[in-house]
Specification:
Layout lengths: L3 E9 L5 H14 L3 E7 L2 E8 L1 H12 L8 E7 L7 E5 L13 H4 L2 E3 L1 H9 L4 E4 L3 H4 L2 E3 L13 H9 L10 E5 L4 H12 L4 E5 L2 H8 L7 E3 L1 E2 L6 E2 L9 E2 L6 E2 L1 H4 L19 H19 L5 H30 L1
Parallel strand pairs: 2-5, 6-10, 7-9, 9-10
Antiparallel strand pairs: 1-3, 1-4, 2-3, 8-11, 12-13, 14-15
Keywords: Oxidoreductase, tRNA processing
Catalytic activity: uridine(34) in tRNA + AH2 + O2 = 5-hydroxyuridine(34) in tRNA + A + H2O
Enzyme class: oxidoreductase
Length: 334
């Protein structure tokens, strides 16, 4: 039975004091043994965390105690194993990086469309359906009829829009757009961006692909494939069940069964996507890392997570010793 609750969350909201929120939020997560990554910026909060149901509820309650985050919405799924190795709360310029200033997603986002109404919208031949995710995410699953912009990062999306808005492009003279992403955050910002360019009839999937897969039965679905997620589950299916993909430990791209059967796949070292992108020295380092992982697995132990935790403990010990040394030096001068 799955024992770890995974909560994906985001909210565009003005947080001018976001830097001051970092330490207490991290402390709350660590107190309740919650792991994952949360991003804080002046434009809001974004991230995914995992832990016991009690721990996740405590962190969500802590966030919603802030009146600005009272209406924070999250999506839940379950994992058999802890999908993260540690807890990070990062400070960012944007909670999802587009690189375009003054895109006010909080007030300018397009029209929400519920999962229940999504099929009818994207079945309309006059509606251009755009997947706002990166190419490697789209490659393992997307909605039927959806256009793949083939972007390597979200910062490339504005340039794609510029190219495709010109004569002959897929967006030229196409006022009705339906946009989607994993959890809703990228399409919320991208629809706001499209509205600044004069696209007024812009829609986006409320709750993203994850909410659609959670809500819509597979027999009624327009989804084809699996949905990439940014944790150790790698991908999910309808009902948010864990999918069949695994990470390449060298490049972090999702691997199918066919990828893993390729002669270019060496566990932990290379895959068909990255076999020619690393030096021999890097591959030797990856191979040694994989050897240590396999040894740890034979001992029924963890390798990566334990290493992270030990490094963190060592750092904290060093800081404590430094502080004690400084205090002793001050006492000696008195």
């Amino acid at each position: 039975m799955a024992s770890f609750l995974v909560a994906a969350l985001y909210k565009f909201v003005h947080l001018p004091d976001f830097q001051a929120l970092q330490a207490p939020l991290l402390a709350c997560c660590e107190t309740h043994e919650v792991k994952g990554t949360l991003l804080l910026a002046e434009e809001g909060i974004n991230g995914t965390i995992a832990g016991t149901s009690t721990g996740i509820c405590a962190v969500l309650e802590f966030l919603r105690d802030d009146p600005r985050l009272k209406t924070l919405v999250h999506k839940e799924s379950w994992a058999d194993k802890m999908p993260f190795y540690r807890m990070k709360v990062k400070l960012k310029r944007e909670i999802v990086t587009m690189g375009v200033p003054n895109v006010q997603a909080e007030t300018m986002a397009g029209t929400y469309v519920s999962p229940e109404d999504w099929n009818a919208l994207i079945d309309d031949p006059d509606v251009v359906v755009v997947d706002t995710r990166n190419d490697y995410e789209v490659s393992i699953g997307t909605f039927k009829r959806a256009i793949n912009p083939h972007t390597a990062s979200f910062t490339e999306f504005p340039e794609w829009v510029k190219e495709q808005s010109a004569e002959g492009g897929v967006l030229h003279n196409k006022p009705r757009l339906a946009m989607f992403c994993t959890g809703g955050i990228r399409c919320e910002k991208s629809t706001a961006y499209m509205r600044t360019l004069g696209f007024d009839e812009v829609y986006h999937l409320e709750g993203g692909i994850l909410k659609y897969l959670e809500t819509i039965p597979s027999g009624e679905s327009r989804w084809d494939g699996e949905c990439f997620v940014f944790d150790e589950r790698v991908s999910v299916l309808h009902g948010l069940e864990q999918g069949h993909y695994k990470f390449c430990r060298a490049c972090r791209l999702p691997l199918s069964a066919a990828d893993k059967s390729s002669s270019l796949f060496v566990d932990g070292v290379s895959c068909p996507h990255c076999h020619d992108k690393h030096t021999d020295e890097q591959k030797q380092r990856f191979a040694e890392r994989q050897r240590q992982v396999e040894l740890a697995r034979k001992r029924a132990d963890r390798h990566i997570g334990v290493r992270v935790e030990l490094k963190k403990a060592a750092k904290e010990k060093a800081m404590k010793q430094k502080a004690e040394a400084a205090a002793e030096a001050t006492t000696g001068l008195a």
